[in-house]
Amino acid sequence: MRKLLIAVLLAAPLMASACNTIAGVGKDVGAVGNAVSKTAEEAK
Length: 44
Fold this sequence. Notes:
Elements: H1 2-43
């Protein structure tokens, strides 16, 4: 049980940083999508 608790405590910061990275990628992808949409509207 103690080993599991230590593993969870060590993994928590890594999982939190991964969530931040994934959120950042999501924002970047959204920004690209908005830019493509805007360009498509202007090309009409």
